[in-house]
Amino acid sequence: MAKVSPLVILPPVIFAAFGAMAYFGLGREGVNDLPSTFVGQPAPSVTDAALPGYPAVTRDMLESGEVTLVNFWASWCPPCRAEHPKLMEMQADGLKIVSVNFKDKADQAISYLKDEGNPFIAVAFDPAGRTAIEWGVTGPPETFILDEQGKVLFRFAGPLIGADYEHRFLPALNAALGK
Q1: pTM for the complete prediction?
Q2: Rounded CA separation 69/65 (Å)
Q3: How many domains would you assign to the chain?
């Protein structure tokens, strides 16, 4: 009987081990969640700079005694454009939304809000992206739900559309609103 070299068996064993890790890793709960270290903590500060012609975001707006959304967006961002009608709808329903426009040009952001409508009560302007870094934003759009005292309740990365929005964001928003 011929002896089998361990070098012949090793590649299929390694491949099987990686396959098992991928199978069990992708099947775990919350695989698409991007946790935020700020959940349960007071919201970080927002730049004092405002998009020209719009009110600046203040600490009082974040701690206003009502649930507030903080939306990070840019005019050059296609997913931000896709979620814009939902933001307009939320604003029409009376939800308070402040925003941080980041890594954008002021004239393009102003033009976008004039053309598409402004769902925000205030628009911070962060062309260098410093505020986004302080909030842990990975890319636009991202939306944070704050409670009445300005504590971060939930972070949602991605546009406010589709099944992920309906299954993750809406339940968190409804819970914050006490619905």
Answers
A1: 0.80
A2: 13
A3: 1
